[in-house]
Amino acid sequence: MLDVPVVIPLTLLALGVGVLGCLVRPRWDVAVLTGLLSAVWSRVNGPVEGRVLHTFSHSRGFTEADVVSVLALLVVGSALLRCALRGARRSPGGRERGASPAGAHQGP
To answer: What totals of helices (H) and strands (E) does the chain contain, helices first?
Structure first.
């Protein structure tokens, strides 16, 4: 699967679209999918890793391409947090707190 030359660009493109989706309109399902794509990117980015930024051992390190995964995971975390905060603001009936039901009298 990793020998196919389109896997790396398609994975990076899908990851970019997912990150943009998380930033523009955060939804938990898009955030989870973007997190999974980030994990896939960390596995397929071998041929385009770039320089080693930090070495953990003689065969393990943090590369330039790994920065993409870390940034994507930060965006995913922020999207999930925004989804959780949005859900906490909703009342059990599905409306925002403080919002009156449709057709309710608003005052004099």
So the answer is: 3, 2
What's the distance, CA 20 to chain centroid? 8
Q: Is the pTM of this model over 0.70?
A: yes
Answer whether 18's CB lies under 8 Å from 72's CB: yes
Q: Which residues contact 12 (CB under 8 A, 6 or more apart)?
A: 41, 68
CB 30 within 8 Å of CB 21: yes
With a CB cutoff of 8 Å and minimum separation 6, the contacts of 84 are none
Write out pLDDT tens, residues 39-92.
Answer: 999 888 888 888 888 888 887 788 888 899 999 999 999 999 999 998 888 756
Q: State the Cα angle at 27 between 35 and 2, rounded to 5°.
A: 30
